[in-house]
Amino acid sequence: KPIIPIAICTWNFKNATAKAWEVLNNGGTSLDAVEQGVMVEEADVNNQTVGKGGRPDRDGNVTLDACIMDKDGNCGSVVYLQNIAHPISVARKVMEETPHVILAGKGAEQFAYEKGFQKENLLTEQSKKEWLKWKEESKYETIINIENHDTIGMLAIDKNGDLAGACTTSGMAYKVNGRVGDSPIIGAGLFIDNEVGGATATGVGEEVIKTVGSFLIVELMRQGKSPQKACEEAVNRIIAKNKNHDTFQIGFLAINKKGETGSYCIHPGFSYSKYDGTGQSNNPSGSFVK
Ligand code: SD4
């Protein structure tokens, strides 16, 4: 029987679900849990797909995308944010302290400084070295299951039964300068409806945006589908529309109001981390390609 509270996230980011669980187990809200949970990965310089240490765009700029959504349907997002290690916390401030939903680029950075965030160089020596090596050929290709972790999308239900979600990424490595993915786009990379459930995505953001994947999954759950079946249908829609699906990965993760979870992806290798009252687990995802 599913147990709340519960926190789940894309990939086996077990330090992130452990942090979220700590917040939930102490009686904290799902909003605090998802923010503090994903911050663990934003701060980890060895994780080259999220936050500090993230891989840069093709011109060497680390540009971050993140969004957060609460039980009341409020949301905040930052896109193309530079020099700030915790975009998720800036997104939360956009949600809570402005009349807006999305802040971009220089404006988002300026807003962060005004809110007391410190300027930091996010490009680590390791990511810089790899980027310089990549530049020798400058061949852009999407990599399936980067190091078996990627964007972190987290969904949680607190002891009151309320949902929240967060999603944060450095985006596709070596993307065109200015590119924004699905992760900070409400409905694409993340969607929460406190009456139904929540969903989040990882993988090639362009494909997730085209099907508004996370919103689609929540709507399918509203119509009665399980989180598992809803994730499968969202992946199947992408596959039906794009013949090149053997070249890219998409992973969806969903939870319903009862705390039931599901996930589905195109290629094997995606999994999600779960932490609830029964403990922590890594859950390999079913995939379209076997
Ligand atoms: C994006 N979904 O920016 C994100 C993260 C990513 O490989 O790059 N995944 O499209």
Structural class: alpha+beta
- Main sheet specs: 8 strands, mixed
Strands in their spatial order, largest beta sheet: 4-3-2-6-5-1-11-12
- Shape descriptor: globular
Mean pLDDT: 95
**SSE series:** EHHEEHEHHEEEEHHHEEEEE
What Rg is obtained from the alpha carbons, in whole angstroms? 17 Å
Beta-strand content bin: 15-25%
Distance between the termini: 29 Å
Strands, count: 13
Bound molecules: N-hydroxy-L-asparagine
Helix content: 25-40%
Give the count of helical stretches: 8
In the predicted model, the low-confidence regions spanning at least 5 consecutive residues are none
Give an overview in words.
The protein has helices spanning 14-25, 30-43, 87-97, 105-114, 125-137, 205-211, 213-222, 227-241, and strands at 6-10, 64-69, 75-81, 102-104, 152-157, 163-169, 190-193, 197-203, 250-256, 261-265, 271-276, 279-284, 286-287. It has 290 residues and is α+β, with helices and mostly antiparallel strands. An eight-stranded mixed beta sheet has the order 4-3-2-6-5-1-11-12. A five-stranded mixed beta sheet has the order 7-8-9-10-13, covered by helices on one side. Helix 1 (14-25) packs antiparallel against helix 2 (30-43), helix 2 runs antiparallel to helix 3 and helix 7 (213-222) crosses helix 8 (227-241). The longest helix has 15 residues, at 227-241. The radius of gyration is 17 Å and the shape is globular. The mean pLDDT is 95.
